[in-house]
């Protein structure tokens, strides 16, 4: 259930979902960059983080 909420968050606010999954690490800042370059790459990266790092 938590993953579904994170995925919804990733679709609306990709950097927030990345922060919730990995904290203020490299992937968070990479997601900020992807989101600045385009929202779709930020969404894809955030969803990838959630699927890859099941907590």
From TrEMBL:
Signal peptide from the UniProt entry: none
Domain of life: Bacteria
Keywords: Membrane, Transmembrane, Transmembrane helix
Annotated GO CC locations: membrane
Pfam families, A to Z: Pmp3 (PF01679)
Ranges that cross the membrane: 28-51
Localization per Swiss-Prot or TrEMBL: Membrane
Protein family: Belongs to the UPF0057 (PMP3) family.
Protein name: Uncharacterized membrane protein YqaE, homolog of Blt101, UPF0057 family
UniProt source species: Desulforhopalus singaporensis
